[in-house]
Design a protein that fits this description.
Blueprint: H1 24-35, H2 40-49, H3 56-65, H4 70-77, H5 80-96, E1 105-106, E2 109-110, H6 116-129
Antiparallel strand pairs: 1-2
Helix pairs in contact: 1-2, 1-4
Length: 131
């Protein structure tokens, strides 16, 4: 849908680390720190591939594997701006009624059918409303 409607559809990613996962907040901070080195999505993918083994060592291993500047990465992971962004995302998620992840919203509406047809249907419905 991003390719089909590049001027009309935008993807916004929000963090919602669940408290039951001991390293979820660190993982979110790590992905955001990787973003400044243009590696957010690659880092995010690696976190998902390794979700059962996430800990501080695995996070650093992923960063090294992706060739990140480790000094910059470590500094940014602990940056208050990143921590504040995660806190804001969690607050926004709670206000939107998010209880678990992944949660997908299209123009504020929860997407229940998360296959391609579900995305396409709701996005095209929303785009047709704006005409």
């Amino acid at each position: 849908m991003l390719d089909k409607y590049p001027e009309k559809v935008k993807l916004v990613f929000k963090n919602f680390p669940l408290g039951m996962h001991k390293f979820a907040r660190q993982a979110a901070a790590a992905a955001l720190a990787a973003h400044s080195q243009k590696k957010f999505w690659e880092f995010h993918k690696k976190l998902l591939e390794n979700y059962k083994n996430i800990n501080d060592a695995k996070i650093r291993e992923i960063a090294k594997e992706l060739g990140l500047d480790m000094e910059k990465f470590n500094k940014e992971m602990n940056d208050t701006a990143i921590q504040n962004l995660i806190a804001r995302d969690v607050k926004d998620g709670r206000q939107a009624g998010v209880r678990g992840i992944p949660a997908v919203f299209i123009n504020g509406k929860v997407l229940k059918n998360r296959n391609f047809q579900g995305f396409q249907k709701i996005i095209e419905t929303q785009l047709n409303k704006k005409r």
